[in-house]
Amino acid sequence: MTDSTLSCEVLTMTTGKRFFTSEEIRPLAERSDLWGAWLILHCWGTIALALVLFSYVPNIATFALAFIVIGSRQLGLAILMHEAAHMAMFKTRGLNEFVGEWLCGRPIMADLHEYRTYHLKHHRYTQTELDPDLRLSAPFPTTKASMQRKLIRDITGQTGFKQRSQQIMFAFKMAGEVEDGPSSQDLAQAFSGPVIGRALMANATLFILMWAFGAWWWWLAFWALPLLTWFQLVLRVRNIAEHGVVEKGDDPLRNVRTTKAGPLMRLFLAPYYVNYHLEHHLVMHVPCHRLPKMHALMLARGHADKMQIGQSYWQVLRLAASKPAMPSSA
Which one of 154, 205, 229, 238 counts the least CB within 10 Å of its CB? Predict the structure, then answer.
């Protein structure tokens, strides 16, 4: 465990102890190798099932379903990489590092170590001027027209293409040639030097497997294209829900949001308990599957009125797009 990881754990333990005792935190924070293995198998198994369905019933509907489900599970891989970055998925550092890097990060062109470096800074300085993620939440609320433009850029691949281009430029030390340089979100998935080769190896493996069990174009249609489009869309919505239109400052119940999510939202938008983001910020090394229990404890102790809780992702998006449009000049 690095010094920065340890110091951030101490910080969140201090925050968490404002609401939970050490005796309550200890079992909540216990890691489980079985749970970690199940989460990885579930994510990749869901991807495989979507492809199996299309292979047996190939039509436009099953193609669209596989495309959306796989894009959502790519977000799931990012979330599980986040778990590994916090050493919360498995008991040992080695398993967290290997699985987080090769089975979660590399297939979606993300780098676990680059991600951890900036993400721990986000935890330390949440919603302050030093928060590297502040630029993701600062534009909100915005107008409906602005929100629509952002979402259209995501689903048409414009955002994804720009970010992947920035990744490559960053890898070859050319990031300065990109306007404004890569954002903190880009750096979360950035490469440094030869590390890009590992991502290419992971994707080459996926290409071979998809060709062997399907067709040569499967990787392009069911992996690269969702990664450039649907993944970017759900990633933006998740980012907005977590820190968009919340209070700035150090109040851990007001500078981050938990959003309620039903079965469909968990399938398509909020896999692996990612919607319990406020609870994650209270004690960041609690494994994701125990966050609902933390949420229930917070509600039982009467904190609901003080917490930022979105009633749905639709409600949060409406809030984030609630800025009145400027009247056009005559």
Answer: 205
The answer to whether residue 209 sits within a structural domain is: yes
Residue 204 belongs to a domain: yes
Place of tokens 């369905």: 53
List 258's β-bridge partners, or say none.
309
Q: Which pLDDT tens digit goes with each residue over 303-312?
A: 999 999 999 9
Residue 305, exposed/middle/buried by CB under 10 A (0-12, 13-18, 19+)? exposed
Flag whether 242 is in a domain: yes
Overall number of domains in the chain = 1
Task: Note the pLDDT tens digit of each residue in 82-141.
Answer: 999 999 999 999 999 999 999 999 999 998 988 898 899 999 999 999 998 898 899 999
| pLDDT at position 94 | 97
- 300 lies in which domain range? 3-133+144-320
Residue 177 pLDDT greater than 60, yes or no: no
In degrees rounded to 5, what are phi and psi of residue 259?
-120, 130
**Average pLDDT for residues 165-170, to the nearest whole number?**
74
